[in-house]
Amino acid sequence: MKKIAPCLLFLLFSVACFAQNKPQDYRPQYHYTAPKNWVNDPNGMVYLDGEYHLFYQYNPFGNVWGHMSWGHAVSKDLQKWETLPVALPEFDNADGTQTMIFSGCAVIDSMNTSGFFEKGFTKGMVAIFTSHIEGKAQHQSIAYSADKGRTWKRYDKNPVLDLGMKDFRDPNVIWYPEKQVWIMTVVKPLEYIAQFYESKDLKNWTLLSEFGKQGDMTKIWECPSLTKVPVEGTNETKWVLMISSGHRQKNYLAMQYFVGDFDGKTFTPQKQNEILYVDEGKDFYAAIPFNNLPKSHAKPVMIGWINDWEYAREIPTGDTWRGGFSVAREFSLKKTTDGLRLVQQPIIQPKSAQKEALSVKNKVVNGTYEVPFKGEVFDLTLEIQPQQAKVVTLNVFQSQGEATAIRYDANTQELSLDRTRSGQVNFHPRFSSVERVKVPLKDGKLKIRLLADKSILELFAQDGEQALTEWVFPTKHEGRITLTSEGGKAKITTLSVYTVH
Ligand code: FRU
User: Among 216, 261, 488, 499, whose CB has the most other CB atoms within 10 angstroms?
Assistant: First the structure.
């Protein structure tokens, strides 16, 4: 018995340690993740008949990149997703090679311009994707579905657009009513060029123009999209060209956008050589907007892949799943003294339908305030006046010796998200990092909204004027939240924390 006891203790200790930090602790609750395996870019996002479709880059056979196919999930409210079987799997070619289904989009061909559907059928779905043959070719191909994306047929004359290149990908197609044509935006990644094509039938494509060789060229260009976007407080719209590419901090990835005009042929940016980022965090990439949204959406809506190719393959989520998707975000443009800027709002269930856990008003903080809420799944809104404080810090996912720090420096007017002490950071040398972005106070106030979900943080500042999205991997899970002021008093005007279901 004396010998067995220490062994038993050791065993119990090991089990406890493992249990404390088991990979499933990182599984987000209200962000979509595939039940198992690797995911990257969202694809084919389209609305039809009460359902939002999220197709995505998926490896059906493992939790590393490979065998790229289109996974599929649907949602009625953009918040709860149901996983459906793989929509478009990788397939074998006659010569023994395989064609992977790389990123792309889906449209509803309600006028049957493609001729793929029965006469009068208005609900035909067409997917336009990159057909990728490893080391050999990338071209654009199409497939169609008459049963709401459940089963698909590939067009027998694929590819529909082939330049004979190895890198030519990620078609994104919209309907352009003024000319009654489909417009495709697609990139030559290594050349930093986006091309625009038009088609009347989704099968025959004619080059309209090119745009590129400007903006962020620190990384290749991928996953473009061209969207007509409303300008807040006006009846105007402008065109936004989004491109996944480099990050403000060298050799990470992010998305950039250009604001301009599109006349059915050419995209003209409002300013030359201006570099603007969609999200300043390291983990928001390859987002594309939904097609065919109902009128009830006044603004376009996008979803992004949460990850950064720098370390995407190594995030410590365990053996089952790897990678996830952002909450759906609606976006618009706002007039600022620097020009038009993107603003984003997450779409998550109206607050009334959620359980409010905490609400604090007009509270002065001098030193450290321990927020009376614990948890790792929440939606927090904070409006604070730094007043005499030089720095105010909101620590979340806080436990003994670890926290993710969201800091506001009143002197530099910089908001930062610091994950250097957030928990597991050593799985990759490039993971541990701090983001910094300029966020001027408004009437002396900073307003932030933080969507926290186990391992995902989506931070929005000043009503969506800035966004920062990041993975974090806490290890101790006490889930404390504290707010500290340094150098003087700060005043919380409102702080609310809602649990999200
Ligand atoms: C972007 C990307 C796309 C490509 C896909 C392959 O993350 O590299 O350009 O189509 O992933 O999975």
Answer: 216
Q: 186 with 198: CB under 8 angstroms?
A: no
Q: What is the pTM of this model?
A: 0.95
Rounded Cα distance between 203 and 208, Å, is 16
Residue 4 gets which letter from DSSP?
A: H
Question: Which residues does the chain have with pLDDT short of 50?
Answer: 1-2, 10, 13-19
Catalytic residue selected from 25, 41, 170, 443: 41
Q: Which ligand 1 atom is nearest residue 132's CA? A: 10
Does the Cβ of 41 fall within 6 Å of ligand 1?
yes
Nearest to 334 by CA among 203, 420, 240, 398: 240
Q: Active-site residue 41, yes or no? A: yes
* Helices and strands (H, E) in the chain, number of each type: 1, 35
Rounded distance, CA 35 to CA 28, Å? 11
User: Which residue do the tokens 């657009």 mark?
Assistant: 161
Written as six digits, the tokens of 400 are 């003994």
Spell out a b/e string for 223-244, using b for 16 or more CB atoms within 10 Å of the CB, else e. bbbbbebbeeeeeeebbbbbbb
- Of 123, 228, 133, 131, the closest CA to residue 186 belongs to 131
> What is the spatial distance between Cα 461 and Cα 341, in angstroms, rounded to a whole number?
14
Ligand 1 midpoint to CA 87 (Å): 17
pLDDT at residue 171 in the model:
99
Sign, CA dihedral 150-153-155-159, equals positive
pLDDT number for residue 355: 75
Phi-psi map region of 307: left, alpha, beta (phi>0 left; psi -120 to 50 alpha): left
pLDDT for the residue 461 = 98
Residues 187/140, Cβ–Cβ less than 8 Å: no
Compute the chain's Rg from CA coordinates.
24
- In terms of Cα–Cα distance, which of 82, 33, 30 is closest to 377? 30
Q: What is the pLDDT of residue 356?
A: 79
**Hey, is 14 helix, strand or coil?**
helix
For ligand 1, whether the C-beta of 188 sits within 6 Å is no
The structure tokens listed for 414 are 């910089």
For residue 353, what pLDDT is reported? 65
CA of 474 to the centre of ligand 1 (A): 29
Closest ligand 1 atom to residue 57 Cα is 12
From edge to edge, which strands make up the β-sheet containing 434-438? Answer: 368-374, 480-486, 391-399, 402-409, 414-418, 434-438
Distance CA(289)–CA(412), nearest Å, equals 34
Could you report the per-residue pLDDT of 78-89, keeping only the tens digit for each?
A: 999 999 999 999
